[in-house]
Amino acid sequence: RLTLYQVNAITEGIDAQAEVTVRLKQGEDLLANGHGANVDTLVASALAYIDALNKLFVLTSTRKIHLISVN
């Protein structure tokens, strides 16, 4: 679930670069922040979302491996 979507301008002018931060929440206890930057805000948003998804994937994979190795 998307809990944060934030857009900031890194530079000024018509060729300004956008920096996007997103926060995704999975379940009750997993949070992942993603960051992306591009002159196209849509591309920066997609990069940030993919970054957060990748982090969630690693967190859930690591968690499953840990649970399996403990049992």
Shape: elongated
Number of strands: 3
The radius of gyration over CA amounts to: 15 Å
Strand fraction equals 35-45%
SSE sequence, one letter per element: EEEH
Uncertain residue segments: none
Head-to-tail CA distance between termini:
30 Å
The oligomeric state of the chains shown is single chain
Number of helices: 1
Order of strands, widest sheet: 1-2-3
> Main beta sheet, described?
3 strands, antiparallel
Task: Report mean pLDDT, rounded to a whole number.
Answer: 90
> How would you classify the helix and strand content by structural class?
alpha+beta
The helix fraction, in percent, is 40-55%
Summarize this entry quickly:
By secondary structure, this protein is an alpha+beta fold. It has one helix spanning 41-70; strands spanning 2-9, 18-26, 30-38. The two termini are 30 Å apart.
Q: Which terms would index this structure?
A:
71 residues, alpha+beta, three-stranded antiparallel sheet, 1 helix, 3 strands, elongated
Describe what this molecule looks like in 3D.
42% of the residues lie in helices and 37% in strands. With 71 residues, it is an alpha+beta fold. The protein has a 3-stranded antiparallel beta sheet with strand order 1-2-3. It is elongated, with a radius of gyration of 15 Å. The model has no long low-confidence stretch (mean pLDDT 90).
